[in-house]
Amino acid sequence: MNVIPTRIAGGRFSLFNATPLSSPVALKFGFAHLRQRSRRFGVGFPKMMAGSLEKCVVCSETSTTNSGMIRPATEANSEEAVGAVKAGKVIAVPTDTLYGFACDACLLKDLGFRVHWKGGRNHRPFEDFKDSSMEAISRIYEIKGRKHTSPLAICVGEVSDINRFAITDHLPHGLLHCLLPGPVTVVLRRGEASMLEKSLNPGLDSIGVRVPDCNFIRTIARDSGSALALTSANLSGKPSSVCIKDFENLWEHCAYVYDGGVLPSGRAGSTVVELIEPGKYKILREGSAKEETVAILERHSLLENVGMTS
C-alpha cells in the first residue's frame, strides 16, 4: 500500500483481548494463515510476519466511541462493510501488511448491481449510486491530504478476478497464484476493457493490484462483486498504520473503522513489482517480502528489468 514509487506514482488504530490463532475468527479472517504460507509457496513467503503472530490482538466487542463507527474485523460485519462501499463510503480495514482506506473502485453501471445502503436510516435507489465511486475516490485523497497525481492501488477478492481489471495474458502460467494472496502489489497494464472507474488514476495505463492474505478485506471485495480502491490509512507523508490507534485522528472521515488488532508485519507495506513487460520484472518498492517475491519471479524464469520503468 502507501504511495507506489517511480512513474506509476505520477512521475513519482480501548482495550484488546488476545485472540488465539486457532480461533474461528483468526482462522476465518487471516491471522493464523501466515504460518502456513511457507509450506504453500515453498520459499517461506512472509517469514518476517509469522514471528509476531502471538502479538496479534482483536477487539472483543464493538467500541461505543465515535458514534459506533469502530467494528471488529469479523465475518459478522463484512456484509455491513460491503453495503458501505457500494453506497460510496470510505472505510478503514486491516490487510496482511498495513491498515488501509478502501472504497469502491468500479463504475456501478458497468457491474449491473442493484444495492441499497442500509447504514442508519438511509435507503437509496441504485440510480443515486452512479457517481458514488468517483466521489469516494476523491474523498480518499482528501482524507489523506494526498496529491491526485499519486495513484491508488486496487484490491480484489480472488487471484482469478485480476484479469477483469488488468492485462495478465503475458504472464507465465501460475505466477500470480504463487505470488498471491500475499504482501505483494503487482503492477500491470490496465487495458481498455478494464471495469475500473475512469477517475481512478487518470492518465495512467497501469494499475497496482493487491490480493491481501487477509480474509476480511477479500470478503468485502468478493461480496461486492467489484474491486476496492486501496491505500494506506495515514496522512500522506506520515508513518503507515499497524493498529487503528495510529490513525485515530482520521476515524471521523470513515463510515466505519474495522479493527483487526495490531498487525505483525511492521510498517514496510507490500512489495511492489511491475509485471508489464513480458518475461521481465522490476521491483518498484522493496516492502516486506522482496526476497520471497524475487525467488518466485525467478522460479518462473522472469528476468529483472534494469532499464527504465515502462
Could you give a short description of this structure?
The protein is of the alpha/beta class and 310 residues long. 21% of the residues lie in helices and 17% in strands.
Structural summary, described in words:
The chain is of the alpha/beta class and 310 residues long. The protein is built from nine helices and 13 strands. It has helices at residues 24-28, 37-41, 47-50, 78-86, 108-111, 132-144, 175-179, 215-224, 290-299, and strands at residues 17-18, 57-58, 70-72, 91-94, 99-104, 153-155, 184-189, 206-210, 228-232, 256-259, 271-274, 280-285, 303-304. The strands form two sheets. The protein has an eleven-stranded mixed sheet. The chain has a two-stranded antiparallel sheet with strand order 1-2. Helix 4 (78-86) packs across helix 8.
Quote the beta fraction: 15-25%
Largest sheet: 11 strands, mixed
The ordered H/E elements are EHHHEEHEEHHEHEEHEEEEHE
Number of strands: 13
For the biggest β-sheet, the strand order reads 3-10-4-5-9-6-8-7-11-12-13
Number of helices: 9
Tell me roughly what share of residues is in helical segments.
10-25%
Poorly predicted segments = 1-57, 59-64, 109-131
